[in-house]
Amino acid sequence: MNTFIAILHVLTALVLISLVLIQDSKGDGALGMGGGGGGSNSVFGATGASTLAAKMTRIAAIIFALTSIGLSVLSSQQSKSVLDQAPMATSAPTTTAPAPAPETAQPQAAPEAPAQQAPAQEKAK
Fold first, then answer.
1. CB half-sphere exposure, 99, CA atoms < 13 A
2. CA–CA separation, 12 and 68 (whole Å)
3. How confident is the model at residue 76 (pLDDT cuts 50, 70, 90)?
4. Which of 21, 60, 82, 84 is deepest in the core (most CB within 10 A)?
5. Sign of CA dihedral 83, 84, 88, 93
6. How far apart are the first and last CA of the chain?
7. pTM of this prediction?
8. How far are the Cα atoms of 8, 10, 21, 25, 55 from residue 67, in angstroms, in the given order?
């Protein structure tokens, strides 16, 4: 159902784009270079009956709006995320290092100074 509405939505968007592009401009814009007055498509003047292209555009816009609402309703009902549907990455189990021992307030003994070791090496010679 979701795929059908999505395809209908895309096709309606393409039809709507083409219908808007083929309509005559009602103002004095770039494509409507008329010098005022009613358009050639309108028999009853500027506020007269709408053309076939305008009616088809209106219908296509309504279908586009309905498919937009339908797609949003269908997508909101799905509670899964795209990341939920992705396959889980398998990796080797990791080992955690043991926690360091808490430091105490007692000062640690200083290592032996090199000067104390030097006389012992001289006696060995």
1. 3
2. 11
3. confident
4. 60
5. positive
6. 94
7. 0.48
8. 7, 9, 21, 27, 19
Rounded Cα–Cα distance for residues 44 and 91 (Å):
75
Q: Return the residue matching tokens 């290092």.
A: 97
Joined tokens for residue 50 = 């709408």
Provide the H-helix boundaries in 40-81.
52-77
> Would residue 23 be called left, alpha or beta, if left means φ above 0 and alpha means ψ between -120 and 50 degrees?
beta
Tokens of 110: 């200083």
- Contact between 16 and 57 (Cβ < 8 Å): yes
For residue 14, what are its two tokens?
A: 């393409």
DSSP-derived secondary structure letter, 107: P
Query: Where do we find the tokens 């296509």?
Result: 60
